Amino acid sequence: MIDAGNLHRVIRHLRTPLLDVGDENNTSISHKGIAVKDHQLGWFKPGTIKTVCLPPFDKPTAIGLIWPILADGGKIVTSRLAEEVRKELRKTASFDVVSEPPYTIVRKLSGPPGERQGKQKQSDNRKRVLISRYGAYGDHMMTSGLVQHFHDEGWNITYNCTEKGQEIYKGDPRIDDLMVQESDIIPPNDELRKYWDELSGDYDKFVNLSEIIEGKLLRMEGRPDFLDPWVKRAAECSGNYLDAHFERAGIDAKGTLPNIYLSDAEKEWAKREVDHVRKKLGKSHIVLWNVFGSSYHKMYPWMFDVWYLIDHNRDDIGVLAVSDGLGKFVVGNDFKCVFNAGERYKIRQAMSLHSVVDSVVTPETWSLIAGLSFPAPVVALLSHSAKENYTWRDGDVPLRPKVADCPCYPCHQIHYSRTSCPRGIREAAATRCMDAIKPLDVYHSILRMQSDEHNTLVAS
Q: Helices 241-248 and 144-152, interaxial angle, to 10°?
């Protein structure tokens, strides 16, 4: 059993399927866990349960009930691990133990029987800050400037996130404690607010970035304020996304760009990969083109027209088209100037490519934030945001639809259905905003970046 007052101390260890062994009328994790009695543990298929929460684990005979149903890497969270149970586990199982007072966590490992050394949290005398952010890849990339700020100031940083945040920050030396919890392990209601209150009590400073963008500067489809008049949305959503993170933390650092960490190995891999693409396409200027994001207004319908112009004019420009599995089939193999990398890269690989390409073309998705973190200039295809919502550098080209072609721009809305977003005039399968950005404008922007790069090389 886990009592509600101490849930925050073990939340990082809880993964579903999750069994809560004890009194089903008093379980604190009933929204994600399955309340069971001891004798019901045999009902579950071997190797399928990721977490078992127990009262004192003091009977060696219980090992035979629990251990078989645990998946590799699965954990037992218990209020007390009896020494006789620990001794028996050493004879029959491979495991490690972590102390999270008032609980003990036992993790099932593969390999020969024996107890391995569990990783214990290290403490120091630095001030401690807890940054909490749940969301998509781009949301976590936006926090990187704030992370760098606290790192430079000498804070001990705990970053509380869900799985996508882990993919962005895993291995980042600026983060002292990456606290990863399963998505929606705590429901987004008063229980979540209570959890934050309890969790933050162990830190000198708490920066809660929950809905820093989607609750303040963007309106989400399905919420009442999504249908606010355009004028109201324009007035209330005009702030800078990146600056808002610092404002939430009470820090005046306007104009700070994202600061994504890459290891030397990641940088070297990215350089080799882009050199391979240069050789494959026979082009010197490589454009990373992110094909689409998660919403309908994050895909540009005229990318084929831009690629046709590059091919037809025999420009010294190659396109590295990054996308998911669906994008691989959308991109196809019809253009000599395009390297179809759909489903080829994991997120950190795709992110690291931004550090070595010559320019970036992207809708408003994670690739825009990654692009702003590295030197290559960005052609941003704006759909729902105003130019003022981002911090731009010299050389970046934020392209927006003209008001005459798209009077709803900028809508400051995230659309998840086709019915909520006007269709394009020239291309009905696209949204009005993306349809209205002319392919010649994108093409000329890339040409200008290539020209600037050439002039820089000649000058040097």
A: 40
The dihedrals phi and psi of 129, each to the nearest 5 degrees, come to: -120, 135
* SS3 at position 74: strand
pLDDT digits (tens, 9 = 90+) for 176-204: 999 999 998 888 888 889 999 999 999 99
pLDDT tens figures, 9-59: 899 999 999 998 875 554 445 467 888 888 888 899 999 999 999 989 999
What is the DSSP secondary-structure string of 217-270?
TSEETTSGGGGS-HHHHHHHS-S-HHHHHHHHTT---TTPPP-----HHHHHHH
Name the residue among 17, 13, 7 with its Cα closest to residue 70: 17
pLDDT score recorded for residue 26: 47
The sign one gets for the Cα dihedral 431, 437, 143, 375 is positive
Please tell me whether residue 171 adopts helix, strand or coil conformation: coil
Write out the two tokens for 224: 């009442």
CB atoms within 10 A of CB 34: 18
| Main-chain phi, psi angles of 268, to 5 degrees | -65, -40
Q: Give the pLDDT mean for 236-255.
A: 96
Task: Please list the helix, strand and coil fractions of the chain in percent, rounded to the nearest 5, in that order.
Answer: 35, 20, 45
- Give strand ranges (E) for 358-403: 359-363, 378-381, 397-399
pLDDT digits (tens, 9 = 90+) for 6-17: 888 899 999 999
Tokens of 197: 């209150």
Q: What is each CA distance from 378 to 25, 418, 450, in whole angstroms?
A: 55, 28, 12
